Amino acid sequence: MYSLYRSLSWILEKVLTPRYPERLGLEPPAPAEVWMHAASVGEAQVAVAILKALWARRPARVHLTFQTSTGLAQARRLLSSSKCSLALAPWDGPQTLRGYLQGLSPRLLVLIETELWPNLIKEALQAGTRVILLNGRLSARRFRRYRLTRPLWAPLLRHFTFLGVISEADRDRFLKLGAPPERIQVLGNAKHDLLWERTHTLGYQELKGLVDRLGLSPSEKVLVFGSFRAGEEEAVREMVQALKDLPGVRFVVVPRHPERARAFYESLAPLGLPVAFFKGAQGLQGFRVVIVDEIGPLFSLYALAEAAVVGGSFAPLGGQNPIEPAVWGKPVLFGPYLENFPLEKEVLLTEGGACQVDSPEKGAQVLKTWLTEPRERERRARQAFRAASKLKGASQRYAQILARFL
């Protein structure tokens, strides 16, 4: 199967190189010990957390590439180091990659999460570069697709030097694809360590500015609906409708994609509550519902919340990260679909820091308890913080693996 993939990609490489010189036929970068490759924004956070932990142990010249321009931009925001060069990744064409690897001459190719590209892996192995996977993950949905092409992946995975994965479920899926059992370990999710770092660096003035912008009074309670996606407008509307008569509660709705803000507005406006958009607003006092139509404020908003509802989980979308509010010590509610975060879900539910519900109606009942019974909310908050604390340290474990192979 790999021979077919290689032949097709070689033909496409010939055709596309003149049209996309920024991804094909690239000039080789300066040499580096490590070529780390990630996908987009979320994986940028993982890569940065691991690299910071690595550099605390030993210096290493790293070339960090991304599939998307948004991932590259995120890395540039989070990382400023002379030890690291940043770029968009070359396309997965055999000739492009061969020249790229000859110039880079890395000792290690480090793939983040699920960035498995057949020609990239094959060319690196043929160049004598060790290939390792860190923060490896395979959702149930993605695994079903990969399993259909197992003859392509099994011969490549057998030659990996090491695979570090997030959870036991991920380990089992990679084993079924052909990874050697003696070279795979469960080490957790490095993304969480950067969250903890952000809780320490978020300043008082930034939070005060957010409070002033929302026009919050000390007696008001904030309920944050974080990272909700298309198809979940009705779920948010039902929960807000059930809770709207509670005095002093402000509802802050943060769509995963800002362009969906209008759809959430149109769903919530008929409830009769004052609704406003967040972007560009200077004073939001008196608006019971605030819809955040920009990227960036969600993590800080969790710090102000009484409780949080995590989106992507009330429709079959895999869910979003429930640890983001938990690191602030906020009780977390999510719906029936959280397949993309099995470890986080298990730890939060086991510790009692989260509730999973199968309907918005049941979700509203849980939220009403948290908003009206301070002792119960505070108990859940402590349990959420304890659960999040148990997930610390993965970036250190991955950095230790990197240092060992360097």
Structural key phrases:
seven-stranded parallel β-sheet, 406 residues, alpha/beta, 16% strand, 2 domains, Rossmann fold
Strand content: 15-25%
Number of helical elements = 18
Strand neighbour order, sheet with most strands: 3-2-1-4-5-6-7
Q: What distance separates the N and C termini?
A: 32 Å
Instruction: State the fourth-level CATH superfamily of the largest domain.
Output: 3-Deoxy-D-manno-octulosonic-acid transferase, N-terminal domain
Task: Give a written overview of the molecule.
Helix content is 47%, strand content 16%. It has 406 residues and is α/β, with parallel strands linked by helices. The chain has two domains: 2-189 and 392-405, 3-Deoxy-D-manno-octulosonic-acid transferase, N-terminal domain (Rossmann fold, 3-Layer(aba) Sandwich), CATH 3.40.50; 201-389, 3-Layer(aba) Sandwich (Rossmann fold), CATH 3.40.50. The strands form two sheets. A seven-stranded parallel beta sheet has the order 3-2-1-4-5-6-7, sandwiched between helices. Strands 10-11-9-8-12-13-14 form a seven-stranded parallel beta sheet, sandwiched between helices. Strand 2, helix 3 (69-78) and strand 3 (84-88) form a beta-alpha-beta unit.
Give a nutshell description of this structure.
The protein is of the alpha/beta class and 406 residues long. 47% of the residues lie in helices and 16% in strands.
What is the strand and helix layout of this fold?
Elements: H1 2-16, E1 34-38, H2 41-57, E2 62-66, H3 69-78, E3 84-88, H4 94-104, E4 108-112, H5 118-126, E5 130-136, H6 140-148, H7 150-157, E6 162-165, H8 168-177, E7 184-186, H9 191-201, H10 204-214, E8 221-228, H11 233-243, E9 249-255, H12 261-268, E10 275-277, E11 289-291, H13 298-304, E12 307-310, H14 323-326, E13 332-334, H15 342-351, E14 354-356, H16 360-372, H17 374-389, H18 394-405
Helix pairs in contact: 2-3, 2-9, 2-18, 4-5, 10-13, 11-12, 11-16, 15-17, 16-17
